[in-house]
Amino acid sequence: MKRELVVALGGAAIVIAGLSGCSSDDKKSSSSSSSEKSTSSASATATATESPTAAAGSGATKVTIDGADQAVNGSVVCATMGGNVNIAIGEAATGIAAVLSDGDSPTVTSVGLGNVNGVTLGYQSGAGQGEAKAEKDGKTYKISGTATGIDMANPMTPVNKPFTIEVTCPN
Predict the structure, then answer these.
(1) Where is the composition biased (Low complexity) (predicted)?
(2) Which H helix or E strand runs over 48?
């Protein structure tokens, strides 16, 4: 039970770190029209073969844990791959990650909420702890449920906190 939670949170941290590496504030301009054509051609090829897609930017977010608004700084990254939508919000060390099934009625696979008041909180489907559901409206996702964590001051008693994540994926 605790192992699944640790694995889920570790996986969420890896997703956050990996996806935040995909985001950048750098603006690049093309130096020639031939590079624009090759980029356009590569984009068309990637779309035609249904490759994984990712978008990074400053999507709208609101995160509430145990009734308190959480300040999450950084960008929003949404990547679709293998039938899942991976959402990373914020910076690698302090961010929030979620993995949902792709489609109009997504199900929640995992959520990593990071460290909240000394307790690392998360949810993993099938772990037998907590619960989570998701709703989708266009590019906006609302994920809510109960996350579980371990307070190291009292490790024998699991901590359960309600959470809500509202995030709009960038284009």
Answers:
(1) 30-59
(2) helix 33-48
DSSP label at residue 25? -
Please report whether residue 42 resides in a domain.
Answer: no
Q: What is the pTM of this model?
A: 0.67
Residues 144 and 164: beta-carbon distance below 8 Å: yes
Residues whose CB falls within 8 Å of the CB of residue 87, separated by 6 or more in sequence, listed in order: 76, 77, 78, 97, 98, 99, 100, 141, 167, 169
Domain assignment of residue 33, yes or no: no
Condensed to tens digits (0 to 9), the pLDDT of residues 32-47 reads 333 333 333 333 333 3
Q: 69-80, pLDDT tens digit by residue?
A: 998 888 999 999
- The tokens for 141 are 């996702």
Tell me if 136 is assigned to some domain: yes
Strand, coil or helix: 135: strand
State which residues form the domain around 13.
2-25+53-168
Q: Count up the domains in the chain and report the number.
A: 1
CA 11 to CA 115: how far, in whole Å? 15
Closest CA to 145 of 136, 135, 133: 133
Please indicate, yes or no, if residue 38 is contained in any of the structural domains: no
